Amino acid sequence: MDVDLVVPMKHPRDGKSRLRGAVEADRHPGLVLALAADTLAAVAASARVRRVLLVAADPEAVAKLGELGGFGVEIVAEPAEKTLNAAFRHGEALLKADDPAAVVGALQADLPALRAVDLTAAIAEAAGTRAFVADRQGTGTTLLLAAPGEPLDPRFGPGSARLHAASGAIALSQPLPTLRSDVDTPDDLAHVRALGVGKHTAAHLGDPCPVAR
Q: pLDDT of 124-173, one tens digit each?
């Protein structure tokens, strides 16, 4: 089944606080935007994604993410409750208002090495069940998928992989290396650079040969 994805974003100047120092301070917001742009470009290249809703703290600050390769990313403002899980629930409610039977997913915005093939494989493996992809450390969650028409019930935060499993979501078993590699720290950034990041992050960091999406 095709999915509708919710992707949350803080203001670029506030996002990825543990990544500060990886580039000069005035280039940090640009790095945050580049990480998200490469994430969304890979999402746009997956034939299994129907809609993408970017829930943003400041829609104007991320407006350039609205069009990537002709794929329309819808941008809406975050709700009054400014937490990650509230952003996911808000996006879910908007998507289900249009299609109550939709398969809704929650995706992190910091996956600059993501390849469409990994995202597509995860959606195929889930096969309409509530499922999640743990990060490469096995503690966090990069992708959560609901069953058709069922609640997403996001439980992101410390130990989210354990919390999602405890709430009945199935942990997907394929390697999916680029989907498991989110970026929170300089070590994470070094890891994705070794995997190969997309063109936006590569350009911002001065890396050669960005990956094909």
A: 999 999 999 999 999 999 999 999 999 999 999 999 999 999 999 999 99
In tens, the pLDDT along 100-112 reads 999 999 999 999 9
Strand partners of residue 171: 132
The three-class DSSP label of residue 67 is strand
d(CA 180, CA 13): 24
Q: Which residue type occupies 20?
A: R
10 Å CB burial of residue 66 (0-12, 13-18, 19+) is middle
- The answer to whether 52 touches 71, Cβ cutoff 8 Å, is yes
Residue type, 10: K
Where is 203: in which H helix or E strand? helix 199-205
> Quick one: average pLDDT of 164-192?
97
Q: CB neighbours of 115 closer than 8 A, spacing ≥ 6?
A: 42, 178, 211, 212, 213
Token representation of residue 142? 């990069």
Q: Do residues 196 and 113 make contact, with C-beta atoms less than 8 angstroms apart?
A: yes
Measured CA to CA, the distance from residue 140 to residue 81 in angstroms comes to 22
Determine the Cα–Cα distance for residues 9 and 93; give it in Å rounded to an integer.
Answer: 17
Residue 68: helix, strand or coil by DSSP? strand
The two three-digit tokens of residue 68, written as one number? 């990537």
